[in-house]
What does this fold into?
Amino acid sequence: MLGSLEDAQDTAQEVWLKLHRHHERLDPATVESWLYRTTVNACYDALRRRRPTGELLIEPAVEPDVEREERRRLVTEGLKTLPERERAAVVLREIEGLSTAEVAAALGTSEVTVRSQVSMGKARLRKWLEARG
It folds into this structure.
């Protein structure tokens, strides 16, 4: 979501510090959704502070594969063109593998909105990728 590993690591550190400060007040049954929501909010805060400049966090291929790496590079570039909310929904749902309900909880929105954001984001991404061959 942030565009660089360094920004993601800084944000993750901020989230873990918040968890440490608030862990006694959290219900163990809701810690996971609290972490997602807090992380997404921290990412939005970081994006508001500065524009992303690096690569999005997509794991590199296990085996060197030029075609796969090129596809990853294109998807990374395409994701940068999406509006923040659509990018967050697509990354959490399609790359991180969260359920629609989990994404909705993390983004503080409804499942219907998440499905719409993912659908629109994927359509925009597909159109952007098709324009690049």
